[in-house]
């Protein structure tokens, strides 16, 4: 891995955990939509880090979904990668803003699967 790629991987890893921490801040500020979007961003950054480390495309949601499938197929990643990413994607308020309104409880509950996604991705490096 090149130094440039290592920097990108490091950026996305730090951004993933920072975003996950920011979910609580946004909830405390009463920003439910922003908390939801930030939850999705945490997962997306985690997958982008895994993709960048391997030199795989990661510019779109479709790319991120393919990264997880590749990790499962080529590197024996657990099925939880896919299910946790799908949970996280359901909180993407930009891509899926038309869906059902959120509750604070749903966002809080989904933090666990997103954190597990990040831990699994990091353990595969």
Main features:
75% helix, Four Helix Bundle (Hemerythrin (Met), subunit A), 125 residues, mainly alpha, 5 helices
**Total separate domains:** 1
- Please write the string of helix (H) and strand (E) elements: HHHHH
Q: Per CATH, what is the topology?
A: Four Helix Bundle (Hemerythrin (Met), subunit A)
Distance between the termini: 12 Å
- Relevant CATH superfamily: Nucleotidyltransferases  domain 2
Percent in strands:
under 5%
Shape: globular
User: What's the alpha carbon Rg, rounded to whole Å?
Assistant: 14 Å
Strand elements, count: 0
**What is the second-level CATH architecture?**
Up-down Bundle
Average predicted confidence as pLDDT:
93
Number of helices: 5
Tell me the major beta sheet.
none
Structural class: mainly alpha
Uncertain segments are none
Work out the helicity level. over 70%
Q: Mind telling me the CATH class? A: Mainly Alpha
Overview of this structure, please?
This protein has 125 residues and is mainly alpha-helical. It has a single domain, classed as Four Helix Bundle (Hemerythrin (Met), subunit A) (Up-down Bundle). It is built from five helices and no strands. Helix 1 packs antiparallel against helix 2, helix 2 crosses helix 3 and helix 4 runs antiparallel to helix 5. The termini are close together. The model has no long low-confidence stretch (mean pLDDT 93).
Layout of secondary structure:
Elements: H1 3-28, H2 32-54, H3 61-75, H4 80-89, H5 104-123
